Amino acid sequence: MPLTIHNLNHQIHDGHIERWLLTRVSLNIAPGECVALTGDSGSGKTTLLNLIAGLEPLQQGQIYVAGQGLRHAGDKTLSQLRRQTLAMIFQHYNLLSSLNVSDNISFSARLAGRYDQSHSLSLARNLGIDHLLDHYPDTLSGGEMQRVAIARALGTRPKLLLADEPTGNLDNNNSDKVIEQLLSLAKSHHSALLMVTHSASIAGKMDKIYQLKDGQLNQQSCGG
Ligand SMILES: Nc1ncnc2c1ncn2[C@@H]1O[C@H](COP(=O)(O)OP(=O)(O)OP(=O)(O)O)[C@@H](O)[C@H]1O
């Protein structure tokens, strides 16, 4: 399983009081499965992604990423997991401004020791950005930058892809195209995808929808 979450509880300091942000959260995501994570602002979506990425320590419960338990895992194990097993896509792209598109795409794969030029090129072609390989990020549109970020993320052949409102900065038309490409590439690479979104129409394109509300994670119907 790319992702298993078992009975996760997470407490935060809210001013002077402590508050349970996540309670008894459990979730399984299978290879190639695309799952939407929805919920009101402040419900804990980004915190949950950060816990899955090993960026915040687990307090109670367990998260397994491709079989590796995160609770009590050391820094070396967690950073290896972030390089080799999972990849993240952010709303603000997080491209390196001093590197051209080609080097941005290959950056994570090189760090993971998995750089494969033909794979990077094929991702760029599939995303329609192969004519931009020698361009720099500040000359690209938002949609083009996010396509570069998607190619960079998939370049490591991650088992699990975490995306935090990846099209939050794009207009509807552009957003739909980028999401279609992301879903199709995640499926063809057998990468599981967990995507935070506020958009009901984007969530409706995914295999499953989960909502965080009052600390609890519940599956919603995909009907709409
Ligand atoms: N380390 C922390 N210490 C204290 N409070 C925190 C911490 N991390 C997150 N919070 C609080 O937890 C709540 C959830 O934050 P989070 O960013 O996870 O929500 P979200 O669902 O992603 O929201 P949005 O949709 O607005 O991005 C917020 O009230 C936030 O202020």
UniProtKB/TrEMBL annotation:
The keyword Nucleotide-binding applies. Pfam families: ABC_tran (PF00005). The keyword ATP-binding applies. InterPro entries: AAA+_ATPase, ABC_transporter-like_ATP-bd, ABC_transporter-like_CS, MacB-like_ATP-bd, P-loop_NTPase. GO terms for molecular function: ATP binding. SMART domains: AAA. Keywords: ATP-binding, Nucleotide-binding, Transport. It comes from the Bacteria. PROSITE patterns: ABC_TRANSPORTER_1, ABC_TRANSPORTER_2. Residues 3-224 form the ABC transporter domain. Belongs to the ABC transporter superfamily. This is ABC transporter ATP-binding protein.
